[in-house]
Structures are given as C-alpha cells and as structure tokens.
Amino acid sequence: MSKFVPKEVYLRGILLHYFIQKKSAAEAHRILVQTYGDNALSDTTCRDWFRRFKSNDFELEDKERSGAPKQFPDKELEQLLDEDTSQTLSELGKILQVDESTVSKRLKGLGMIQKQGHWMPYELKPRTTASTAEKKRFFASHRIVTGDEKWIHYDNPKRLLLSKVISTISGK
Hints:
- The protein has 172 residues and is mainly alpha-helical.
- Among the domains are: 48 residues, Arc Repressor Mutant, subunit A (Orthogonal Bundle), CATH 1.10.10.1450; 37 residues, Winged helix-like DNA-binding domain superfamily/Winged helix DNA-binding domain (Arc Repressor Mutant, subunit A), CATH 1.10.10.10.
- The protein is 57% helix and 5% strand.
- It contains 8 helices and 2 strands, in the order H-H-H-H-H-H-E-E-H-H.
- Strands 1-2 form a two-stranded antiparallel ribbon.
- Strand 1 and strand 2 form a beta hairpin.
- Helix 1 packs across helix 3, helix 2 packs across helix 3 and helix 5 packs across helix 6.
- The N and C termini lie far apart (107 Å).
C-alpha cells in the first residue's frame, strides 16, 4: 500500500486553515505531526508561516530570495534552441538573464549535448531520427554514379619518353 507524502504547499494550506480557525502554531504543528508523522513541517517552520499569515501574507508559494538564482522554464530554453541550435552558453545565459553554469545544468537536465557547435538531444527524438534518415537517403543517392562509360587511368612510359624527345628537338 502506498504512503501519501504531502507536498510543502499542501501542508502550508493546512496551516492557513488552522490559522483561520484561530489555532496556535504549536497546536497546528501537533496536529500535523499526529497526521503526517515524519512528513510534517517542523515547529519552527509552522511558527514562521503563522507569522507571515499574521502580517496578511497569505501566499503559500516560496518568495524569490535575493541570493537565489532566477528561475526560468525549460520551455524557454527549448524555444531558444529550436530557433538556433548553435548558440553558446554565454549567449543563452544573456538572453535568459542567468549564469552560464545554470544554463549548462539545465541543458544537461534536458539531455542536451553539444556536437560540432550545435546543441542536440543525447537521445534523438523520433522526428529528429526521421529527418536525419531522410537526409542520409537524399545525400546517399547523390553519391551513386551511374553511366555506361568506364574511365581507366593508363600510364604509357613510351609516350612520356616520346614527349620529352619532341620537346628537346623543338627547343633547339
């Protein structure tokens, strides 16, 4: 049987419910521990959230901190790569307004690698493999040379000697 593990935002919603019911932070913490055991928020965290609720801040999501890096969705990065796969880490970082290392970690998380100056998925997607196979077939057909003539390179040493003799005679 699976055990339910609540997310932090879910537990914060429960804390807000207890705050509205005029329960104390300690009482709310006790109820959370009885219900969720080790998955409950700590007593200090409960007190911090009750302090936020008392200051009329009812937002349950974490606020962006000054030291935390800016978050950007992976879709933004994928769109930039769809536009131009040859962009460098520094170019992508400037566009997304984050550090190069952040972009590098995100690209690694997306399974992207750089080959010959282009970002591509480590494991090719079906549409990519289909277009690659189509291109290979197209270029392979141009390499096949057909015709009814056969060219043979023939080295005739007598003719070479004759051409040297003629050039010396005509030079005199």
